[in-house]
Design goal:
Strand order of the largest sheet: 8-9-11-12-13-14-15-16
Shape: globular
Radius of gyration: 20 Å
Order of helices and strands: HEEEEEEEEEHEHEHEHEHHEHEHEEEE
Structural class: alpha/beta
Number of strands: 19
CATH topology of the largest domain: TIM Barrel
CATH class of the largest domain: Alpha Beta
Number of domains: 2
Distance between the termini: 9 Å
Largest sheet: 8 strands, mixed
Number of helices: 9
Length: about 375
């Protein structure tokens, strides 16, 4: 029986020419993430899944590590088609190695021998067919880092667009100008995980801060709908000074970028900090509002954060969308995406009408059995 590495080495395609540069001595430079790895012949990049074989860069293809149907609010997108169902899929590998990763069984699969997530055979048409059968409105590439599997995501998104579906990325944001331009025609919604505003902290996670900041700027300039999430970790990124600088940066890009501060809980290798308390989220949210952000949300502690789960009009303060966790309890936006009270436009991607909510919690698709597990040995 083949190893996981053997299996993944067979399920590849040649990288898109926009994301690779030929170098000397059979080396290639990969532009799928901010590491811009110069990869020698016979070696993978930092992500472990894009590799150089004979001077050609090969990239993941033809499988998923898992699929799930999520309320779009789980991604989290609060200003994009509230109540819609997102069909989420992911592959394996990541360009970072966060010690608190909640998806470590997929993201660290080739880096940590304890991360076991056998892949499932898949093709774009099958994934789209499954998504349509579930009633999904959006296909989302997530769970591992989707930037490093961008070619596969674009193939799936092409099929999704033909079926009338929307598309999204849930990403750490460690991008490059090349990969963002490559994705630009195919991605409607983009969530960036801004993990810290301290470069030293990012280096602990295996990256750098500046590429993430550049990605946020570029996505906004491109007109891609963008929401930003910061997982608040006690003792790591929760100082008031760091949060203030982070919020001020977002304001400098646009006051209308929704900022989600979410509660940490012990996971993977990070088991020493306390779980995030309600008071921590309230403090972070207050800092965001004081900095000038118009839409600040607190997540992972439903019912404990006052109105910070709700979307409120930035002009008159009226409640536009009332939430409890992932559940939409009240929806008052006009068909034009405006406040019904003062008629100011609310930034986002809105439906002409609220179509209700298919699910208020994640679930495995009913068509999951169509995806055949690829057997591996560890």
């Amino acid at each position: 029986m083949a190893t996981l590495r053997d299996i993944l080495n067979e399920r590849v395609r040649e990288a898109d020419s926009h994301l690779v540069e030929k170098l000397d001595r059979n080396r290639v430079r990969c532009y799928s993430c901010g590491h811009c790895c110069p990869i020698p012949d016979g070696q993978p990049g930092v992500c472990k899944v894009r590799f150089n074989r004979g001077g050609t860069l090969y990239v993941p293809w033809g499988y998923v590590a898992g699929v799930q149907c999520d309320p779009i609010e789980k991604k989290p997108f609060f200003h994009a088609y509230p109540g819609a169902l997102a069909y989420s899929f992911g592959m394996l590998g990541c360009d970072l190695h966060c010690s608190y990763c909640q998806n470590w069984v997929t993201s660290q699969a080739l880096r940590d021998p304890n991360a076991v997530s056998p892949p499932l055979e898949a093709d774009p048409a099958l994934l789209v067919k499954d998504a349509v059968a579930q009633g999904a409105r959006v296909l989302v590439s997530t769970y591992n880092e989707p930037l490093i599997t961008s070619e596969w995501a674009v193939a799936v998104f092409r099929a999704a667009r033909q079926a009338g579906l929307l598309t999204g990325f849930v990403s750490n944001g460690n991008g490059t100008p090349q990969v963002l331009e490559y994705l630009r025609p195919w991605v409607d919604l983009f969530k960036v995980d801004l993990k810290s505003f301290d470069d030293r902290h990012y280096r602990q996670l295996g990256g750098r801060l500046q590429p993430i900041l550049d990605t946020i700027h570029r996505l906004h300039d491109m007109g891609t709908w963008l929401e930003v999430v910061t997982l608040l970790i006690p003792g790591f990124n929760d100082s008031s000074d760091e949060l203030r600088r982070l919020a001020q940066f977002l304001c400098s890009v646009s006051r209308d970028i929704p900022w989600h501060v979410t509660a940490f809980h012990k996971d993977y290798k990070m088991t020493s900090p306390d779980d995030t308390h309600t008071e921590d989220l309230l403090r972070a949210a207050a800092i965001g509002r004081e900095a000038g952000l118009r839409y600040v949300y607190a997540g992972n502690l439903p019912g404990q954060v006052g109105d910070l789960e709700d979307t409120r009009c930035h002009q008159c303060g009226g409640t536009l969308i009332r939430r409890y966790g992932y559940m939409i309890e009240e929806y008052r936006l006009t068909p034009e995406g405006s406040c019904p009270g003062c008629h100011v436009a609310v930034p986002g991607r809105w439906s002409r009408q609220f179509d209700g909510q298919i699910a208020a919690r994640p679930f495995l698709p009913r068509g999951h059995a169509q995806l055949v597990r690829i057997l591996t040995r560890q």
